[in-house]
Specification:
This protein has 234 residues and is mainly alpha-helical. It has one domain: Up-down Bundle (Vanadium-containing Chloroperoxidase, domain 1). It has eight helices and no strands. Helix 6 runs antiparallel to helix 7. It is globular and about 60 Å long.
Length: 234
């Protein structure tokens, strides 16, 4: 091998090694950021449960009127998994079997799985924590957790509306990143609406958002690992 070829080969190996180290470093940095964000979110939940939930809920409940209640009822539609599940199931069947367009079928499947796994996780956690609903505190002074209590009155934590809103905002941000700010804004409004009418505490919404974001992040990693294309640029 000629000296110039040896030099070129060594340079390529060094470049490849440098790229691998940079990629590993970026991956570690992203992981550290995610862990820090998760830790701060859990801390915010604990602080809210201890010092914010009761006064905030009492104050916001006093402000509720017919208009706010009606608006919250409309926003609750966006916090339900049903419309996302139905629409994505129909879209998946159409693109998978009628049009045979793999990428669009994968995108529909991504939405379908996000709309089911995230609220399922929230339902499991509701049973595990068994948190009393705000109306029990307002009416009877009951502000507690009763783990494994299978009752609607003890299913406040986390908020399913916030879970679904965060999950769908994350999902659609992956599919249509240009509209991410809009999705996040809508998700925030939907997550806050149950708090305004005393159905959930603020910490319920924060926890729900964390569950939704985490569930879809894991789902996205699975899709990448299994090479399910979600866009033509992948």
């Amino acid at each position: 091998m000629k000296p110039r070829e040896i030099e070129s080969s060594a340079s390529e190996r060094l470049s490849a090694t440098g790229a691998s180290m940079t990629k590993a470093g970026n991956g570690a940095q992203r992981l550290a950021i995610k862990l820090l964000s998760g830790g701060l979110t859990i801390l915010a939940i604990a602080v809210s449960i201890d010092a914010i939930d009761q006064p905030a809920t009492g104050y916001l409940k006093s402000l509720a009127n017919d208009s706010i209640i009606a608006t919250a009822a409309l926003l609750a539609i966006l916090g339900s998994p049903v419309p996302y599940f139905v629409a994505s199931a129909v879209a998946f069947a159409f693109f998978k079997f009628e049009r045979q367009q793999t990428i669009y079928a994968n995108r529909a499947l991504f939405v379908l799985l996000a709309s089911t796994t995230a609220p399922f996780c929230a339902d499991i956690l509701k049973l595990v924590f068994g948190r009393a609903r705000p109306h029990l505190w307002i009416e009877q002074g009951i502000y507690t957790f009763r783990p494994l209590t299978n009752s609607l009155d003890f299913s406040s934590f986390p908020s399913e509306e916030a879970t679904v809103a965060a999950a769908m905002a994350t999902t659609f941000s992956v599919l249509m990143p240009a509209y991410r700010p809009t999705f996040l804004l809508v998700a925030t409004v939907v997550a806050l609406s149950p708090i305004m009418i005393g159905i959930h505490y603020p910490s319920d919404a924060i926890a729900g958002a964390l569950v939704g974001l985490t569930a879809v992040s894991i789902l996205g990693a699975i899709f990448r690992h299994c090479a399910f294309e979600l866009s033509k640029t992948q």
